Automatic annotation (TrEMBL), chain A:
Keyword field contains Transferase: yes
One annotated GO molecular function: propionyl-CoA carboxylase activity
Location of the CoA carboxyltransferase N-terminal domain: 3-257
Name recorded for this polypeptide: Methylmalonyl-CoA carboxyltransferase 12S subunit
Keyword Signal: no
Domain CoA carboxyltransferase C-terminal positions: 264-490
Listed EC numbers: 2.1.3.1
Automatic annotation (TrEMBL), chain B:
Highest rank taxon of the organism: Bacteria
Entry keyword annotation includes Translocase: no
Keywords (A to Z) from UniProt: Biotin
Native organism: Oceanibacterium hippocampi
UniProt cross-references to Gene3D superfamilies, sorted A to Z: 2.40.50.100
Sequence ranges assigned to domain Lipoyl-binding in this UniProt record: 1-72
InterPro entries: Biotin_Carboxyl_Carrier/Decarb, Biotin_lipoyl, Single_hybrid_motif
CDD domains per the UniProt record, alphabetical: biotinyl_domain
Descriptive protein name: Biotin/lipoyl attachment protein
PROSITE patterns on file: BIOTINYL_LIPOYL
Entries under PANTHER family matching the protein: OXALOACETATE DECARBOXYLASE ALPHA CHAIN
Amino acid sequence: MSAYEKILAEHEKQKAKALGMGGEKKLAARREAGRLNARERIDVIFDEGTFVETGMFVTSHRPEARDRSPADGKVTGFGKIDGRMAGIVSCDLTVLGASSSLNNVKKMGHMRRTAIRNGMPLIFLNETSGARIPDTMGAQGTGALGQDPTQFLRDREIPYVSACLGPSFGTGTWFTMLSDFVVMRKGACLAVSSPRVTSLAIKESVDPEELGGWRLHTEKTGIVDYAVDTDEEALELVRKFLSYLPSHCDELPPEAEPREAGADPEKILEIVPPERQKVYDVRKLIAAIADKDSVFELKPKFGKVATTAFARMNGKVVGFVATNPMFKAGALDPDGCDKIISFLVMCDSFHIPVLILTDTPGFLIGIEGERRKAPGKIMNFMTALQMCTVPKISIVTRKSYGQAYLNMGGSRNSDEMGAWPTADVGFMDPNIGVNVVYGVTAESDPQKFEELKAEITRDSSAYDLAAIYSAQTVLDPRETRDWLLDMLEVHSRGRSRGFSKRRLASWPTTF
Amino acid sequence: MADIKIESEITGTVWKIETAVGNRVAEDDVLMILESMKMEIPVLATDAGVVKSIEVEEGANIAEGQSLVILEG
């Protein structure tokens, strides 16, 4: 054996050790349970043969753990999704629980800096037990952390995406909170600390689903966009999400081939009932207006009074913001506000024009809303809307009342506003107004009530709004797509070549 | 299988019940229609399952968060 043959044989041995992860026994158990391992996940998410690894030979800094810490539990590198480069941090639970350590945190820092500097999305595949013990114990263990003062700074120069595919605690959770899109595998747990650590701390048993399960995060906290059954579904959703976003903030979102509308314009008249007491699902309206099969909804189970979705219009990416009468009649609640704010932040950060569809009786008022800081949320929403510098085009399809009229782009709060002939705009329902102002109800004094109602009622039609130029036009609902396409061209931000000012890019969205 | 409680997301009255005990329902099927804010608001199944019990009657006043239907998932 020549000297080189020996050297290269040793090199192959070292490589095999790293690629062997936590050993065949643990990997077999995962296969048995239907879970991909850290490296298989990378193969699934990236275009074939495009992955290039960084940090393969990293191990624990503790000599006694060096042999059992291939890649130090986090596999990192770069690969392509539909031909576009992205960075990845894939946790390997088979190696010391993929816990965060001195050396793998260096890898994560390198990934983050490299992705930001060179303009590519960063993907976190989380399955980690949290900080490594005993590495982080004591003043020196903890004091060694935090050497990068920008580690958790989010300026949205690039998209961050997280898939929580198993337990996700500590660093895995922190980067999930900072992400623009999150998908979770059902059965995973996303929390500050594990159920075991938590139950030891508070001395009572903790149910993982209650502490950080998919229902909590898709329905209550809104952190997770989608919960799925398999690794493959989760990774496919990550690819799909990224297809709507630019690789970084100095480029525009990727265009696709223009397609025909999702439905014949006549269908719109079937989707939206003219009777004001009837509800409908605004997602059907969005699907009809946008390019066929181009709609990708975000946070579908959270704040359902509002719908937020990416879509394409003649191949160009847009963001739809709509109230959905199907839920709470489309009355905006605190969760709905948070959902819209986080979406406006993403659209403004990555130059995605916003299309607003309004059919709302107003903000949902009540004690529960006040306890949940509704007034603050409403003003945060308003601030975000006014700071948002992408094109904003709005349409009042039916009702738009009170402050919610302004929040949904009313008057000068969007670049151009159209109203369908079915629009009904005002401050509040006159039936309620009579009671509020005069204390008279239809039951207490029917005649007086009718007189007073006639006195305070003002015309509330689309034409009244258009007559003072607060709506710029009244639209046949069947013309909606064509009008939006025209207005996207008019309000193209030509002088900045379609780039927004990104004033919302640093807005924290983990409400 | 676990029981799935379908709660009202809004204060209002029960206008029409559109399912019955023993029915098999799919996710997003309409279970009943509430009346609130002068709107007819459908209550949808959050999961697929079999209707185990219906907790309210037509015409009843209901509060936000009140249990309406129990499904067996």
